[in-house]
Design brief:
Length: 123
């Protein structure tokens, strides 16, 4: 099979505002080198004027290095701006990436198994 015969990675997203100043961006599919620019164009602008941003990755089936890099950059920007950034990582393929990053010395990202848990601590 040639590389050109591989299917294009798919990434879909949704947005919700469950509370004042709280934005939830949900993603489903694959977050990798091919889809990270799309996710970046959604995540970074929402750091302007937000009090809290929750990235719901519970619908992801794959998280590559480009996705990890994006979240770490968003976390850095959020911290500098005083914004609370949280991550919902339902699948083991997502939680494992953040566990390994933290073990390697990267700044920890608050990770929750369920969206309700991430939002509960917002209250």
């Amino acid at each position: 099979m040639s590389v050109s015969a591989l299917p294009e990675p798919q990434l879909s997203w949704s947005e919700d505002r469950p509370g004042r100043g709280v934005t939830v961006l949900g993603f489903a599919g694959e977050l990798d080198l091919a889809t990270a620019p799309q996710a970046e164009s959604l995540i970074l602008p929402r750091l302007d004027g937000a009090r809290s941003l929750v990235l719901d990755f519970s619908g992801l089936t794959f998280l590559g290095a480009a996705g990890l890099n994006l979240v770490l950059r968003a976390r850095l920007l959020a911290t500098r701006r005083g914004i609370d950034l949280r991550l919902v990582a339902g699948a083991r393929c997502v939680t494992r990436v953040f566990e390994l990053a933290e073990d390697a010395g990267w700044p920890p990202v608050p990770v929750y198994r369920r969206l309700a848990d991430a939002l509960e601590e917002q209250a």
